[in-house]
Amino acid sequence: MTDSPVADRTTDKTADPLATxxxxxxxxxxxxxxxxxxxxxxxxxxxLFAGIEECRFKRVVQPGDRLSLEVTMEKLGRRxxxxxxxxxxxxxxxxxATISFxxxxxxxxx
Length: 110
What we know:
This protein has 2 helices and 4 strands. The chain has helices spanning 5-11, 27-33, and strands at 48-57, 67-76, 80-89, 92-102. The chain has a 4-stranded antiparallel sheet, with no helix packed on it.
């Protein structure tokens, strides 16, 4: 057996932070697991979708395209929000939709 974290992860399931539901990882631990870096390293909290309306796909996004996402909040309360999102590549709209979401009380999602 080696001292490699990869070897430990494959032989000892308790060493794998993803093996236990509800485990919260530090930014450094996440960076050791995935190749992404800031500014798109992670989404650390998820609102719960309540609805997606008026969604239109207008252009195929290809690997290598730089996708820009702009969201304009139409309503934002303590527990509910709605925003209009537009995704584009090189100024050309790819998708647009109105997204409604629920903001759960702290601790509900783990």
